[in-house]
Amino acid sequence: MHSHDHGHHHGHHHHGQGTGKFLVWSLVGTSAFVCVELFFGLRANSLALVSDAGHNATDALALLLAWFGVYLQNKPPDASKTFGYHRAGVLAAFVNALTLVVLSAWMIYEGWTRLFHPAAVDDKVMMFVAGGGIALNGAIMLGLFQSSKDDINIRGAFLHMLGDLVGSAAIVIGAIVIRFTGWTQLDPVLSIAISALIIWTAWDIIRESLDILLEALPRGLNLEEVQTRMRKVEGVLDVHDLHIWSLGSSARAMSCHVLIDDMPPSQSDGILHKLNHVLGDDFKIHHTTVQFEHVSCAISGTGCVIPVDAGHHHHHHHH
């Protein structure tokens, strides 16, 4: 009764390995820079640098998610059925993003108190470290620019880098202003602004990762619409128990029951082929599991339990 089909399309391979490797290096670089920035931020007594380290950490998360997306697309089809490691990456991003939101809230509080009790900051260190941030983010953005055209995850990572570049530039300018005017309150002001930016960015990651973790309907898909299109396929009497979910950031899976006339599998194969064609072309769903049925499920109100005696009736018809 079951007929499974995994129509995998290998259109993904065009920017695979190179981008994956580049993302890993960017991830390593960004993570290292987070530590450097945190260390010097504490030494220079600059809240802005510490916040910027947090902002860089959200970027590392964006890179992690992008890397998981690319990694998954380049795995051979048989492995795409096990979502274990992919979910682990998404879960990591989710937990980290939550942590960052909490930390940012604390940074905003710290910045607020420091506005009223200004503290001396080492503007030279601020300038050099933030300058390093500009160089690092700029380099990563250049590398991502090419592949950001055709991959939504990479575009996400690219935008994060852009946000960080702006943050670092603001700190450099801030350090110069502090150097010449001695207005140290600018440091906590920058810190509050950057922390607000982190919360805004992290919120996006939280939403996206939760969608995947809760098996939500992939963005931009309408269940009714998919069902209607499937029912229009020649030979399909009805479609029910339809589930569509995200395997990862760009892979989608679907399972359903399809009611057809009683026919040999050789005939129903054509229907399956047409269904997969519709799903793949119109909705970009390439991982499908379709179960064919010949008995109406109306018999049972709950889900699909075909009554035991249904089979026996069939035999009588054939005699």
The number of E-state strands comes to: 4
What name does the CATH topology of the largest domain carry?
Alpha-lytic protease prodomain-like
What is the helix fraction of residues, given as a range?
55-70%
Distance between the termini: 22 Å
The CATH class label of the largest domain is Mainly Alpha
Which structural class fits the helix and strand makeup? alpha+beta
Q: Name the shape in a single word.
A: elongated
Order of helices and strands: EHHHHHHHEEHEH
Largest sheet: 4 strands, mixed
Strand content: 5-15%
Query: Can you name the CATH architecture of the largest domain?
Result: Up-down Bundle
Q: Whole-number radius of gyration?
A: 27 Å
Low-pLDDT segments, ≥5 res: 1-14, 307-319
Tally of structural domains: 2
What's the short story on this structure?
With 319 residues, the chain is an alpha+beta fold. The protein is 65% helix and 9% strand.
Fold and architecture overview:
By secondary structure, the protein is α+β, with helices and mostly antiparallel strands. It has 2 domains: 12-213, Alpha-lytic protease prodomain-like, CATH 1.20.1510; 223-318, Cation efflux protein, cytoplasmic domain (Alpha-Beta Plaits, 2-Layer Sandwich), CATH 3.30.70.1350. It is built from 9 helices and 4 strands. The protein has helices at 16-43, 47-73, 84-116, 123-145, 152-181, 186-213, 223-231, 265-283, 308-318; strands at residues 2-6, 238-246, 252-259, 287-293. A 4-stranded mixed sheet has the order 1-4-3-2. A hairpin with a 5-residue loop joins strand 2 (238-246) and strand 3 (252-259). Helix 3 (84-116) runs antiparallel to helix 6 and helix 5 (152-181) packs antiparallel against helix 6. The longest helix has 33 residues, at 84-116. The radius of gyration is 27 Å and the shape is elongated. The two termini are 22 Å apart. Mean pLDDT is 82; it is low at 1-14 and 307-319.
